[in-house]
Amino acid sequence: KRTEIREFYRKIIHLFNIIVPLSHVYFIKDKMDMLIFISLILICCFFVEILRNQYSFFYNIFKKYLHFMMRDYEKKGGITGATWFFAGSLLTIILIPKPYCIVALLFVAVGDTFAALIGMNYPFIKIGRKTLSGSIACFVTCCIIGLLFSYELSATTIMIGALIATITELSLVGINDNLSIPIFSGLSMYFSNVVI
Question: How far apart are the C-alpha atoms of 89 and 189, rounded to whole Å?
Answer without folding.
Answer: 16
